[in-house]
Write a structure and sequence with these properties.
This protein is of the alpha+beta class. It has ten helices and twelve strands. Keywords: Cell membrane, Kinase, Membrane, Phosphoprotein, Transferase, Transmembrane, Transmembrane helix. It is a multi-pass membrane protein.
Length: 479
């Protein structure tokens, strides 16, 4: 059978409850019907037994059976009276002209009377008269059984039948039970339907939401808890997978950056190494070279050696930062003191190029940080401005501070940077003017070191061109 044609569980549950209710009410009606019918039959028998006892008493007093009057026993207007011996022989019957010759010991009411002093039969057809009667028999001490009978007419049938109003009442009770059962099964069915859909969603891998509550009862509370627990478990798995994917992506990104860094280092090392090699080979091959050229080649060797030294130092620093903040030791430092020391150290170089460094950060700025990284951060920013800004002023200013963060700007009044370079300004080995950067001895890692140092201190850094000219770096550091 197609599952779509089957009844739903709430419908089947209602039909089960309906069947159970109808069976229970039907059994009760049947039992009560027979009980009431039996009660009315007993009541009829009791009234006839009174007549039987009266007749037996009159017979014991010597009265003739035909002389006994039954006018006081109403509403029985047509009572059939029979007198039967203990051997089953009928000796008197007021409803027939001639006595039946058939033995009456096989009659049910006679057998009961012989065994229990009295007995009755609700309805039996009489072979003597051709009619049906209600029989009641009583055994006397004189060896006779008096049996009275009432014709089983429509009126007697109505008297013996139970009250049909009882059936109507029980039918109404059954209807009420069905209505209540419908609402009860509908409520339970709603739980089952929701749980079935929940199970199907779980099997299908659909994201579970606990926003739609179950009905407010014990089963609903249990169902809500099940859905809520699973939804949290599912969300925990999603978060775990997201974190795993993020960690995997981060690891892959680190591998990519390391590979890129290796390739870039290899490329950056070729130029100074090749230059040093050419200079040394020239000196070896031309031993009679003039002293001026000899000194020039040695100066080139020294310049490229220093460039190599700077490159290796920057690579070591950025590799250290790539290893993560766990390896970076922090301590309580005064940021203003670090900035002041860097400015003092760079004043001579800046002054030789006609550049003035204005440091407005004079008050104490305590924070948790790594002194060498903070120093490298401001060294690179100032060196970058000295080498490439083309301006004559570098300003360091405290923009904002509170208990959680410090915001500082480092700006110059030079030529600034074209907007097309802004998105890649902090990339490793990215140079705006490659020839000019190499000529200035730059490694291409300065701003990348600055960004990583800021991030390791829980901060951010942005760069923008100043309207009046120059470039401004806004640095936010966590305290």
């Amino acid at each position: 059978m197609d599952s779509s044609n089957r009844l739903t569980y709430p419908q089947r549950l209602f039909l089960w409850l309906l069947g159970y209710s109808l069976l229970l009410v039907g059994c009760f009606i049947t039992f009560q019907y027979h009980r009431e019918k039996e009660f009315k039959a007993d009541e009829m028998n009791t009234r006839l037994q009174m007549i039987n006892t009266y007749i037996l008493t009159e017979l014991e007093h010597g009265k003739n059976i035909s002389d006994i009057s039954l006018r006081d026993f109403h509403p029985f207007d047509d009572i059939r009276v029979s007198v039967i011996k203990n051997d089953g022989t009928v000796v008197y019957d007021n409803s027939i002209d001639s006595l039946p010759g058939k033995n009456h010991l096989d009659r049910e009411e006679i057998r009961q009377a012989l065994a229990h002093k009295s007995g009755y039969t609700v309805r039996r057809h009489s072979e003597s008269t051709g009619d049906s009667y209600f029989y009641s028999a009583t055994k006397g001490d004189n060896g006779y059984i008096v049996r009275t009978a009432v014709p089983y007419s429509i009126s007697l049938s109505g008297l013996l039948n139970p009250d049909v109003n009882f059936i109507w009442v029980m039918g109404a009770v059954a209807l009420v039970m069905c209505v209540l059962g419908y609402f009860a099964t509908r409520r339970v069915g709603l739980h089952i339907t929701r749980l079935k859909k929940f199970a199907e969603d779980v099997e299908s891998g659909i994201k579970i939401s606990d926003s739609e509550p179950f009905p407010s009862d014990e089963l609903g509370s249990i169902s809500n808890n099940i859905v809520r627990i699973y939804a949290r478990l599912q969300q925990a798995n999603i978060d775990r997978d997201r974190e795993h994917n993020a960690a995997l992506h981060e690891q892959q990104e680190k591998e990519r950056i390391k590979k890129q860094l290796t390739n870039n280092i290899n490329h950056e090392l070729k130029t100074p190494v090749a230059s040093i090699k050419v200079c040394v080979e020239t000196l070896l091959e031309h031993k009679n070279i003039s002293s001026e050229k000899h000194d020039l080649f040695l100066q080139r060797c020294l310049m490229n050696a220093e460039r190599l030294q700077h490159l290796l130092a920057d690579v070591a620093l950025i590799t250290r930062m790539d290893d993560g903040s766990a390896t970076i030791m922090k301590e309580n430092v005064d940021l203003s003191r670090i900035i002041s020391d860097v400015v003092s150290d760079r004043d001579i170089i800046a002054g030789s190029k006609g550049i003035v460094i204005e440091n407005d950060v004079v008050r104490t700025l305590e924070m948790s940080g790594n002194p060498s990284l903070l120093e490298a951060m401001f060294n690179n920013l100032i060196d970058n401005a000295i080498a490439y800004s083309g301006g004559d002023t570098i300003k360091i200013r405290l923009l904002y501070e509170d208990v959680k963060k410090i915001v500082i700007t480092v700006s110059d009044n030079g030529v600034g940077v074209n907007e097309e370079h802004m998105p890649r300004l902090f990339e490793r080995f990215y140079r705006i003017d490659k020839g000019r950067s190499r000529a200035a001895g730059g490694t291409g890692l300065g701003l990348s070191i600055v960004k990583n140092a800021v991030m390791l201190h829980g901060g951010t850094i942005t760069a923008e061109n100043v309207r009046t000219g120059g470039l401004s770096f806004k640095i936010t550091l966590s305290r």
